[in-house]
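QA checklist item 7 of 12: single-chain prediction sanity check.
[x] sequence parsed
[x] length recorded as 318
[x] structure emitted
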Amino acid sequence: MTEFTGYRKGVNLGGWLSQCCHTKEHYDSFITEEDIKVISGWMTDHVRLPIDYNLLEDENGNFNDEGFGYIDNAVKWAKNYGLNIIIDLHKTAGFSFDKGENESGFFESPTLQERFYKLWEHIAKRYAVSDGSIAFELLNEVTEQSYKDIWNSIIKNCIERIRRIAPDTYILVGGYWQNSPDAVPDLEVPYDDKVIYNFHCYDPLMFTHQGAYWVENMDKNFRLPFDDVEPPITPEFFIERFSRAYDAAKENGTVLYCGEYGVIDLAEPEDALKWFKAINTAFDRLGISRAVWSYKKMDFGISDSRMDKVRNELIQYL
């Protein structure tokens, strides 16, 4: 594989069906078709849709058709505006990248793993297409390196079961340390030629997460101007950062996709713009497809009013 066709530049719909208050009022208002129309005007070709398992299942694993209806809407709206879509399982029963979600046991429990497989089989039955317009992302941000071997096994088993239903659908897989590029070389050789290596990038964290209340030992008043970062944030900084992941993907016959990247809303918009310009240059030089985090709010919203004065330029660097 030489490129992730149809998924070159995208936008995350974070906070809509994942990392949210799971209420009908929220689902019905946070993202609407008008938002997808806006995104389609930003020189993008896809959206990434994070979803939580508890949108789709009750506590016993029974499927909820009303929850799936929101994915149906997202798929329909994306199609209406010529966008492809990645369905990203952001949280599964027994695992979340966010410790505050109090999900645990997935990597130790064959029962929870079977529930995961069955959920993906159901998703595949509803959304599998052969034209490449819908892709599947198995799980967001595996955390611990100690999960490496069992996670590789789960990936293989899950893809094998999905492939009985969806033989041609792109499937994205990422590694430990919250989809770190450093973990990509530890992913097993792709199951087939429609499997993509996925990573996230918020480097350097002290810049992109300055003042973030959820980062351990981060002073909420800490600020770091772009020009004060050492080493300097340049395209070469990112190219070096991605080099091992890029080489692993190339060696194993696949490509890289950066499913999340962005700058916290506490940074100056002009500084965020410089960061986006640098990372975009690296993405383009290496042929890495990507989706920015995130469309609105979530501490990273690029449609929020704070970005008004730089957005017209910013969308050139997504």
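[x] summary fact logged: The first helix runs from residue 24 to 30.
[ ] second reviewer sign-off
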